[in-house]
Each structure stands twice: as structure tokens, then as C-alpha cells.
Amino acid sequence: MNQLGQPVWRPGSPAGYDDRVATWAAPDALLRRVEVAQRIAAQAGNGVDARLLAPRVLPGDLSEATAGAIARAESASTALALLLVSPEFLRR
């Protein structure tokens, strides 16, 4: 959470964590989210099948583009990382 700019129990102000587009849509913010997703996916290894998980965690919201990218992934960990950085997942 520190790497994502949201240290646990330490928001930057009483209003909470920053939710401005400039903060979340910045290239460095996207890169940090991808790096975190890759680490989570690497720890899960081949134990999680993102093709089965995606419709369960995103019922009715999974786009064809995301489902296709997950299906074409070269490994299970890559598929999971793609799910974790998909627009549908990040909106949750």
C-alpha cells in the first residue's frame, strides 16, 4: 500500500487519500499498480486461474477485451496480473 501511495492508517489529510485524476492517471501511478499486480501474481504462481476468477469477481462487468487479454496470456501469473490491472478491476 505504501508503494501505491496509500500507507495503511496514514492518509495525507483528514479527508482521506487523494482521488484526483492527476494522481491516479499519472504514468508513474500506473507503473506502480502494474508492478504491485506482477508481484501479487508471482506469489500466486499457477495456483490461480484468472480465466475462472475474472467472471466471479467482475460479474457483468468483464469486457471482451479484458477477457481476451487474460485468455491470451502466456502464463497463469501473467493472466492474473492482467486481471488485477484491468480497467474493470481498478474501478472496483
Polypeptide structure, described:
It is a single chain. This protein has 92 residues and is mostly helical. The protein has one domain (21-91). The chain contains six helices and no strands. The chain has helices spanning 21-24, 27-44, 50-57, 64-72, 76-84, 87-91. α2 packs antiparallel against α5 and α4 runs antiparallel to α5. The protein is globular and about 40 Å long. 14% of the residues are buried. The mean pLDDT is 84.
Terminal CA distance: 16 Å
Q: In what range is the share of β-strand residues?
A: under 5%
How would you describe the shape?
Answer: globular
Content-based structural category:
mainly alpha
Average pLDDT confidence is 84
Number of domains: 1
Descriptors:
92 residues
Structure summarized in a few sentences:
With 92 residues, the protein is mostly helical. Helix content is 58%, strand content 0%. The two termini are 16 Å apart.
Secondary-structure topology with pairs:
Elements: H1 21-24, H2 27-44, H3 50-57, H4 64-72, H5 76-84, H6 87-91
